[in-house]
Specification:
The complex is a heterodimer.
Chain A lengths: L4 H4 L2 H28 L5 H10 L3 H29 L6 H22 L1
Helix pairs in contact in A: 2-4, 4-5
Chain B lengths: L2 E8 L5 E8 L6 H12 L18 E4 L2 E4 L5 H4 L4 E5 L6 E3 L2 E2 L2 H9 L22 H9 L7 H5 L1 H5 L6 H11 L7 H8 L13 H5 L6 H17 L4
Parallel strand pairs in B: 1-5
Antiparallel strand pairs in B: 1-2, 3-4, 3-5, 6-7
Helix pairs in contact in B: 3-7, 4-7, 7-8, 7-10, 8-10
The chains are: A mainly alpha, B alpha+beta.
């Protein structure tokens, strides 16, 4: 018999899910990222047109989500490194809260600069 | 008298839940509920317990979806709207009803070289291990495991990879790695360094979350990851 969501409903499992899902979504974004950068190879005009297109509010919103995903994946990775290499026992949930907090701070800073 | 509605797993892997109504009492444990059903309502119900006080590790079951010791779990703390769902531990073969076959669980303790291997004889003096020494402290952090299987039942990696040694066996290996009297660590580290060993852990921490003794097998597994890496770099494994 297998466990269901009730066995998995705890903060460290949510952190695992956030790290995994953000990683998968970022890897899906990467081809788009390289395609956008690749436009520079075909001349300035193409890239500028794309950058102007990216100024639209909906694209900016998507970029904010992207920044959140990047921050979540980075802080999630730092959390894992701390769990694997540092002597911890009781403060792992503090670490998790710090990762979530830093993710939100990164997202908000990006929004303030938009 | 108020009552409790209880769904109890019946049969083997392909069984079903059966409904029972049990009197609700003060300070009632989940084990009390199961015992009431077996003694009063249906004597064919199979379940397992021994000590009733959280020492033997034989009464762990899945209560409302989470692995727990039934003897130390008060109904007050887990009943949702005067309802309980009681099932056997996950990730283990079901013998019948609430009884699982613990053989794979304990075979993995052997697989992780969970047996103490001493190098001293009766002619040697007692080993002196300072209680405050770092190795003793690390061993102490995991030594209280009584082998109930709650962590093993909660681990997704065990469900994904049936060969995975699991949190309890790896925690046991880590306590021995930190036992300065043990002489079997090279073979032990080699045993836990494989595909089904410590490096397969995904750090979900469900084991640490569900351990009734508040042991953190995740911390022990992280220790094994570091120890195996160090041994590999030194060419020992």
């Amino acid at each position: 018999m297998k466990s269901d969501f009730r066995a998995r409903n705890h903060p460290a499992y949510w952190a695992f899910l956030a790290h995994r899902v953000s990683g998968v979504l970022l890897s899906l974004f990467l081809p788009l990222h390289f395609w956008a950068l690749g436009r520079a190879l075909q001349g300035e005009a193409g890239l500028d047109a794309f950058l102007r297109w990216s100024e639209q509010p909906l694209v900016k919103f998507a970029e904010t989500v992207l920044v959140l995903l990047l921050a979540a994946h980075l802080t999630g990775g730092l959390r894992l490194l701390a769990l694997e290499f540092l002597a911890w026992r009781d403060w792992q949930k503090g670490l998790l809260a710090a990762a979530a907090g830093l993710t939100l701070v990164a997202g908000l800073l990006f929004l303030l600069n938009v | 008298m108020s009552t409790l509605s209880v769904s109890v797993w019946r049969g083997t892997e392909s069984g079903r839940f059966q409904e029972f109504t049990v009197p609700r009492l003060a300070s009632q444990t989940v084990l009390d509920v199961v015992t009431y059903i077996q003694r009063t309502l249906d004597p064919t119900l199979a379940y397992r317990y021994a000590c009733r006080v959280g020492m033997c590790g034989s009464c762990a079951m899945t209560v409302n979806g989470r692995a727990r010791w039934t003897c130390r779990t008060h109904v007050d703390n887990v009943a949702q709207g005067e309802r309980l769902e009681i099932a056997p531990l996950r990730n283990l073969p079901v013998v019948r009803d609430l009884v699982t076959d613990m053989t794979p669980f304990f075979d993995k303790w052997a697989g992780a070289r969970g047996r103490f291997q001493g190098g001293a004889t009766r002619k040697d003096d007692f080993a002196r291990v300072a209680p405050g020494s770092p190795a003793r402290q690390l061993a102490d952090a995991g030594i209280e495991c009584i082998g109930c299987g709650a962590c093993y039942s909660s681990c997704d990696v065990v469900a994904w990879n049936p060969a995975y040694l699991g949190p309890a066996a790896l925690n046991r290996a880590w306590t021995l790695v930190n036992d300065v009297r043990d002489t079997g660590n090279r073979a032990r580290l080699a045993a836990v360094a494989g595909d089904a060993g410590c490096h397969a852990c995904h750090t979900h921490m469900s084991c640490s979350e569900r351990c009734p003794k508040q042991i953190s097998p995740t911390a022990s597994i992280a220790g094994l990851k570091r120890a195996t890496m160090e041994a590999a770099l030194k060419g020992e494994i």
